[in-house]
Amino acid sequence: MLRFRLLAPFVLVLFAALAVTACGSKKSSSTSTASTTASAASCSKSNLDLHTAGQLTVGTDKPAYPPYFEDNKPTNGKGFESAVAYAIAGKLGFSPAEVKWTTVPFNSSYAPGPKKFDFDVNEISITPQRSKVVDFSAPYYTAPQAVVATKGSDAASATSLSSLASAQLGVQVGTTSLDAVNSQIKPSSQPKVFNDSNDVVSALKEKQVDAIVVDLPTAFYITSAQVPSAKIVGQFNAPGGDSWGALLGKQSALTACVSKAITDLRASGELKRITDQWMGAAAGAPVLR
């Protein structure tokens, strides 16, 4: 998954259909997330094992794009993942002033080893491979993949996944989009893999690739703001879903409490409200099979 800015809601079609799926599982969450068993007592603020005493340290990449973050400022509480992080913090007993953000490059977030944060939110897909070296919370969102191509191109007229097999596709390294391309589209040539989201967009603009594959919210932003000459060819589901979870260090004492916070937010309807506000629905994006 990539990280880009979506335009204001009145520019884009609202995403209602996706919003409710926010609680799904990214890659079989039952096997890739840590235990969610936690009591209210064990998750009280005074009992939490924190990276820095007295504050909740939350990681994300920089720049931080909408609709996940607004104005490149995770601290303002605006944007889907900023709002989710502060809602989790609230459930754990922290005020906004007690939340500290730190920059964590996407690819290094799920690398093995100690973490300099309590949890990280960065559209990080829950996968079995990543779960071998890090923990994931219960998922807070599930996004389909989307194909974006320049209007008028052969790829733009595709009506099925198989009709994209001969296209030169582009994806970002380290994302589940690459797995989705290989397992669902089964291209006849290897996808071109780029280091970051900006390189992926540049490749599409410069026609280094016929189409790119990103998560659907990102696709709406690309076609609305970054490459208006492009269109969303269609959306498709990755195997096992493409669920995002808060990432924590392996066997973190906080994992169960963060999962409990997300479960409580889902049960109360707060998670859906946040998702509806910032993410919207995939109306107008045909399903590719």
Describe the structure.
There is one protein chain. The protein has 289 residues and is of the alpha/beta class. It has two domains: 165 residues, Periplasmic binding protein-like II (D-Maltodextrin-Binding Protein, domain 2); 92 residues, D-Maltodextrin-Binding Protein, domain 2 (3-Layer(aba) Sandwich), CATH 3.40.190.10. Helix content is 28%, strand content 16%. The protein contains ten helices and twelve strands. The strands form four sheets. A five-stranded mixed beta sheet has the order 8-7-9-6-10, sandwiched between helices. Helix 3 links the parallel strand 1 and strand 2. Helix 3 packs across helix 9. The two termini are 20 Å apart.
CATH top level label of the largest domain: Alpha Beta
Helix content estimate? 25-40%
Average pLDDT reading: 86
Total number of helices:
10
Assembly state (oligomeric): single chain
The end-to-end distance, rounded to whole angstroms, is: 20 Å
* Biggest sheet descriptor: 5 strands, mixed
CATH-defined architecture of the largest domain: 3-Layer(aba) Sandwich
Question: What is the rounded Rg?
Answer: 18 Å
- Helix-strand pattern, N to C? HHEHEHEHEEEEHEHEHEEEHH
Uncertain stretches = 2-35
Question: So, the CATH homologous superfamily of the largest domain?
Answer: Periplasmic binding protein-like II
| Strand order in space, largest sheet | 8-7-9-6-10
What would the CATH topology of the largest domain be? D-Maltodextrin-Binding Protein, domain 2
Share in β-strands: 15-25%
